[in-house]
Amino acid sequence: MLSLKRFCGCCFVSESGSKADSHPREDKIHNQNDITNQNEGKSLQEKKSSKQNTKEQPKLKIVIIDSQELEVGREYIMTSSGIKNKTQRINDGCIYGGCDPIINDIVLSEKEKGVGKRHFMIQYDKKFKNKFAIRDLGEGMGTFIRIENPLHLKTNNIISFGDSHMIISIDFNEGSKITIKFIDGPKVDEKFTFRINDCPINIGRMADCSIRFDDSSMSRYHCFIGFDNAWYIQDGDGYKPSTNGTWLFGEEFVEITDQMVFKAAETLFKIRLDGEAKDN
């Protein structure tokens, strides 16, 4: 007959020292511990995965750099889902700016000249990683993007500088020519037509400019138009930028680049992308 002796409160061993079957209650405790450990491991893995996804999510920071009514230095963080810590709307990958506090994420002051109820939008394009774009929404006096690098021109582009706005028309049927019509400012309704051999087409206050202005807010050589397989415009004289900038009206979506500056009504914003858009 096999003789057993007590080894602990719930187990027995044989005289030869081998362990017999454990008590059923102990098996239950062991099983519960295994399940708990598995759940804890799964939970930690899920948290780690969630943290990684958040870290990898495309992100930009929008900073107010000049305003008569709003706090300069105020920041807004946007991810591919929309504005961070937003409570007003669904996560649709868009943010809106304007003077109506109910329908906008970035609220502009009603006191600003030319402000719209819903003035502009910034959208994340999910088809292309890390791509954000901005456009005007047709209310107020427009949303303008500062031209920092040579910009290829298209028909119906509206360019702004000083007190002037001009619209571009390009004709490739007659050896490529460009027509500029001013729609606002001191030269309103005036038209200027140029061909490739007229380049560079300088615009500014100097006497030798192709289009000359008596406007103290403009630089001597404020901007110029050239041709390099396509018509383009560049701010400044090619060596240094103008004082107050040359601006593209954001009638269509414009891809956002790092350090881009744009203005809506009387407020100026700067955008920083991804790694530079860090949480405070």
TrEMBL record:
Species in which this protein is naturally found: Stentor coeruleus
Name of the protein in question: FHA domain-containing protein
Xref: Pfam families: FHA
Record's compositionally biased regions (Basic and acidic residues): 18-31, 43-56
Signal sequence residues: none
Extent of Polar residues compositional bias: 32-42
Lineage: Eukaryota, Sar, Alveolata, Ciliophora, Postciliodesmatophora
Region Disordered: start-end pairs: 16-56
InterPro entries: Cell_Proc_Reg/RNA_Proc (IPR050923), FHA_dom (IPR000253), SMAD_FHA_dom_sf (IPR008984)
Domain FHA intervals: 201-253
